[in-house]
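cron nightly-structures :: item 1 of 1
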Amino acid sequence: MADEIVVIEGDGIGQEVVPAAVDVLDAVAAESDAVDGFDYVEADAGDAVEEATGTALPEETYAAVAGADATLFGAAGETAADVILPLREAVGSFVNIRPAKAYPGVDAVRPETDVVFLRENTEGVYSGHEDRLSEDLSTLTRVVTSSASRELAEFACDFVEDGRGPSGDPDEGFTVAHKANVMRETDGRFRKEVLDVAAERGVDADEELIDAFATKLPLDPSQYSVVVCGNLAGDLLSDLAAGLVGGLGLLPSANVGHDNALFEPVHGTAPDIAGEGVANPTAAILSAAMLLEYLGYVEEGQQVRDAVEGVLSDGPRTGDLGGSATTEEVTDAVVERL
């Protein structure tokens, strides 16, 4: 039975890199006996949709995502918060998985970088509780619950015990990044619950203040492997890691719930190059690899990752990586390797 995948290109280069990822998924389906094919449901979201309809995320798109097996999403522009946060809600996502890895052939600042961020995906300062109290005063309420913190920690323990971390070693453990020395109640709660779960599960866990982490990661990324962090910290620190490996065009991500998931490249709409056919499709294709693995096609997901690594090593490459290839040329090269 074919898996149902909602495809949302969104704005900017999302309209170029998502079709590239779909081409790769089709190539996998054509070559693999394990994959029965994919039923794609095209849906709309983003700036252009809001301009045309008055809403950035139509109800039918939300419903389609909530009912699908998985979703592949590109990018949204000014309406990003109005799109991605509800979409994460639609799939019941409680963790955002963001790997940051340096690849052969890419001019990386730190070629030894291989880190996976497991980011809490529902709370913190992204929970949407902002108020304008006066012409001079606005407030933001940070939300942290024990239940969400423990759910993330349980996932992190499963993640490392299943050997899904960079080393593949089920005993590698993880690092908790927090700022509990200042945000004593909120990050204090997050820190305590995550470390408690790790202790209960017998998983090694150390900890790092997020500002110290931001200093130490660029100096020696090899000291970190799996990093568990809150919503805002995960967003910022994973982008910092992107700078070490060659840019956001290389970073995929997965928003995972218990019965559904949404996959998206970490980069934005890149309006400066949108429509020129030169966007780097790597992050979107690697997001498709994560989608395959989520659906149970672990071998096929690894095959996509191997094909991408081969193309990054040997070329062709897009302009952001020092090459001159088009999006289509890079995609064709990955498909050919598959």
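cron nightly-structures :: done
The longest helix spans residues 14-31.
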